[in-house]
Design goal:
The protein is mainly alpha-helical and 121 residues long. Helix content is 50%, strand content 3%. The protein has 2 domains: 57 residues, no CATH class; 59 residues. It has 3 helices and 2 strands. It binds zinc ion (ZN) (2 copies). One zinc ion binds next to loops.
């Protein structure tokens, strides 16, 4: 049941898993293309939006799941680079940058390892 929390009923095929959007219950052009077929009038093709499951995973959620660790690592690199560069050029703001960056690095690291440690559906 846990897996279904992230899924929503596919509006395209009305949860049947089969596309019948075109005339006479045939699959629509987009789904014909998704099934690597050409032409029209194909009946009973699996829905190209949900892959024939009748339920689809929200795309934004899928992207978020992948983006979060990437963003965390990028932020980490950016902060570390800022600290290293300011140290290299002996910036007068070095202490400020360090004071600003170190708690952020801690938060990002904590977030990253918490996200990785949590069970995935
Ligand atoms: Zn569908
Ligand atoms: Zn379709």
């Amino acid at each position: 049941m846990n897996v279904k929390v992230n899924l929503y009923p596919c509006a395209h095929c009305e949860r049947t898993g089969t596309c019948s959007r075109a005339a006479n219950g045939a699959a629509c052009a987009a789904c014909v293309k998704n099934n690597n077929l050409k032409g029209s009038g194909h009946v009973g093709l699996p829905c190209g939006i949900c892959g024939g499951l009748g339920h689809a995973e929200p795309k934004t959620e899928r992207i978020n799941k992948r983006m979060q660790p990437i963003l965390a690592i990028l932020t980490l690199y950016f902060l570390m680079a800022a600290v290293l560069i300011s140290a290299a050029v002996e910036s007068q703001y070095f202490t400020e940058i360090l004071a600003f960056a170190s708690p952020l690095v801690g938060v990002v690291l904590a977030f990253y390892f918490t996200a990785r440690g949590s069970p995935r559906p």
